[in-house]
Design brief:
Length: about 170
């Protein structure tokens, strides 16, 4: 028992010594070093406070004499023009169907929203905050639907050959 009590202070001193024996770290642009001579030569700045963790890896940028060569990738089989046009037409019809659904949903939401004055339901007559929460949710749903419609129209314009969407308006 006495030996254990004697060793505890030494263990604490050793732990404190390790904690205070951290080396200084300098930042040189996007790299770090703990070599004082290198830091002085490059004009690096001392990093103070906090811990620095540096993960060693390969340099992708800024390396001298490194040529990056990519192997040709195996490409998907080529599709003839008629098949690609059929795929594009199918994609366009799907987009147009989604646009029509989104526009119908928007009309339904706008009708329920009633320009920010929807009819009160059930307990909303007594609890005005519930009503305000439902109105805010309806407004957010309308805005999301408007964004969906705009995105679908952009995608239709992108997929059409001449850059204009041939779809029904709001």
């Amino acid at each position: 028992m006495k030996i254990r009590h004697v060793l505890i202070p030494f263990a604490l001193l050793a732990a404190c010594g390790l904690a205070s024996a951290q080396t200084q770290i300098w930042r040189c642009g996007n790299t770090y070093t703990n070599d004082k001579a290198e830091a002085a030569a490059k004009g690096c700045k001392l990093v103070e406070g906090g811990n620095v963790t540096v993960v060693q890896g390969t340099k992708a940028y800024g390396s001298k004499g490194v040529n990056v060569v990519t192997a040709p990738q195996a490409s998907a089989p080529r599709v003839d023009g008629n098949e690609q046009r059929a795929r594009d037409a199918e994609a366009r019809s799907i987009l147009e169907a989604e646009l029509k659904k989104a526009q119908a949903r928007r009309e339904e939401l706008a009708r329920e929203y009633n320009n920010g004055q929807p009819e009160k339901q059930g307990a909303e007559g007594k609890n005005y905050q519930k009503y305000l929460d439902r109105v805010a949710e309806m407004k957010a749903a309308l805005e999301r639907t408007d964004q969906d419609i705009a995105g679908l129209q952009r995608e239709l314009a992108r997929t059409s050959g001449n850059g204009t969407a041939n779809s029904a308006g709001k």
